[in-house]
């Protein structure tokens, strides 16, 4: 049986891995000339099992109001004359209800724990442990105000109940875990340390895994844009594509898995399928480490400013900000400014800002931050998409679950909601 994976980001390539391991003939289609060139290109690098709380939680509506109109705010809503944007925003508000947020947090934690175990298996089986600047030194969440830190103990208890190792730390303990914080530690109220979390370069991981998949006989159709999914009698019959020269054609398989990130809803809409995914833009900067004594080795999350920082070999990656502004991948230097300010304030001298590369990507966000994994209403079309803020964290587990569902048509273990429309 031939399965065609649509999209070669972190989600598509890990999906192809599990399907190939399960014995399918696999091909993969992407408009870019290499894997992981869009949202999976330069994300925050965190395997953040300790951050299952979705953006949609009871505090967020008030924060959005507080940040309204601020160009450097962590979350920015740019209203558009778009029914899709407003529908998504209303669903997001619904997911902010306390019981919805609790349910979503538990489901994401279960998938994240499963995914981390799967990541460990994949990298060993594929032999790519050393190919993506991986670190297994945990994630240290930082709180820069007493008000924020006041909730850290409750949060640690909730994480522990969900099976995630995490403990609160004093300022001194934070510095012992990550000495690079010493320079500006007087601003720090405290931390929460998740020792089992990891970090690594998602783009390098995806490309290393893609190289192994090629050796295993997976066909890559790169530089190939998907124009349309052709359906008849409840089945996908083929994928209409065009190449860089504008030549068109149709690719066929027995089954198809949609992993097109933020663009997933656009391709299935003409088939009557509505996926609640909206692009939420985020930024990162990546720069060579200038002074190793000021560059952290432990991955950091600034909980007060919603910024993450990961050491990737001899580089530092700082990422954050969220903006609802449609399919607009353009880089706005003003939105990147808070990342430069952050590194200057918290890790002075760690990088030379003149050497930094600013990047923006569109997170494929669902209102709940739960991905959409499972079968569509069409008999041979499957979904593994909508991973929002946690696509790197959830990739291997989601792909394993999708492959298990395709093989057995049963709910996989561990149990968490599989959100396919039917
Ligand atoms: C600033 C930022 C920081 C982040 N930090 C983290 C983090 O620290 N940890 C974490 O877990 N997650 C993080 N994320 C989220 C994570 O990066 C995403 O969830 C993940 O990359 C999504 O992967 P994907 O494969 O679904 O989408 P993509 O990587 O976008 O892949 C989709 C693929 O589909 C292809 N495609 C789309 N349309 C077509 C078409 N018509 N024809 C052919 N090909 C097409 C694209 O070329 C692309 O390769 C972050 C995201 C951002 C933006």
Any idea what the CATH superfamily of the largest domain is called?
Answer: D-Amino Acid Oxidase, subunit A, domain 2
Q: From the coordinates shown, what is the CATH architecture of the largest domain? A: 2-Layer Sandwich
Uncertain ranges: none
Name the helicity range: 25-40%
Terminal residue distance = 23 Å
Radius of gyration: 21 Å
Continuous helix count: 11
The CATH topology label of the largest domain is D-Amino Acid Oxidase, Chain A, domain 2
How many strand units? 20
User: Could you describe the largest sheet, including whether it forms a barrel?
Assistant: 9 strands, mixed
CATH uppermost class of the largest domain: Alpha Beta
| Relative strand content | 25-35%
Shape by Cα distribution: globular
Q: What is the count of distinct domains? A: 2
Structural class: alpha/beta
Mean pLDDT: 93
Distinct ligands, ions and cofactors found in the model? flavin-adenine dinucleotide
Family: Belongs to the DadA oxidoreductase family.
Organism: Parazoarcus communis SWub3 = DSM 12120
GO molecular function: D-amino-acid dehydrogenase activity
Protein name: Amino acid dehydrogenase
Describe the structure.
There is one protein chain. The protein is of the alpha/beta class and 422 residues long. Strands 4, 5, 6, 7, 14, 15, 16, 17 and 18 form a 9-stranded mixed beta sheet that branches. The longest helix is centred in the N-terminal third of the chain and has 29 residues. Helix 1 runs parallel beside helix 8 and helix 4 crosses helix 11. It starts with a strand and ends in a 14-residue tail after the last helix. The mean pLDDT is 93. The chain is built from 11 helices and 20 strands. The protein has 2 domains: 152 residues, FAD/NAD(P)-binding domain; 207 residues, D-Amino Acid Oxidase, subunit A, domain 2 (D-Amino Acid Oxidase, Chain A, domain 2), CATH 3.30.9. Flavin-adenine dinucleotide (FAD) binds next to helix 1, strand 10, strand 14, strand 18 and helix 11.
